[in-house]
Amino acid sequence: MKRRFFLAAAFASLLAGCSALRPPEGERVQRQIEGRFSISVESSGDSRSDRGSFVWTEAEGWQRLDIGHPLAGTLMRLTMYPGRAVFEDGSGKKLEGRSAQALMAEYLGFDFPIAAFRSLLEADTGTADSFELQGWDVSVVQRTSQGLPQLVRLRKEPSEGSPLIRATLFIDSRQRYAR
């Protein structure tokens, strides 16, 4: 159980990127989304929480989620290619696999809807402000003037040894770049 709490706390720290995380020079970035998050994890009477920021980057042939901490720097980078994903943490640990979802679950100890993460941040869910996404309850609390989600709350009920997880995402900026 301690491992799950450690991993959940790591997730909280993972989603704590600073906006200094930028793609290397020469990469043809098509889209970038920056935001902040807070997360709390509860299990067996123990509760932990953290906050930070994230950067989602898309380029031709890949997507990447960079997560770090303002004091600790980059804590995680998850790069997704067609049919393959690469996870790297701040200590240099590197995992490769066919699924970003599986790598996140292996590292965190619980599922997070990483495959649907960008669509959650960018999707116009119409008038549906509350919906279910891969076992998570999602509430769009605030939208931009263009109708895109800006403040999103996620909740995952405890099940099969997984903790109760609550997360709040706030999207600060969305950038599209010429191809």
UniProtKB/TrEMBL annotation:
It comes from the Bacteria. It is a lipid-anchor. It is found in: Cell outer membrane. Residues 1-22 form the signal peptide. Pfam families: LolB. Keywords: Cell outer membrane, Chaperone, Lipoprotein, Membrane, Palmitate, Protein transport, Signal, Transport. Its main location: membrane. The keyword Mitochondrion does not apply. Belongs to the LolB family. Monomer. This is Outer-membrane lipoprotein LolB. It comes from Mesosutterella porci. The lineage of its organism: Bacteria, Pseudomonadati, Pseudomonadota, Betaproteobacteria, Burkholderiales.
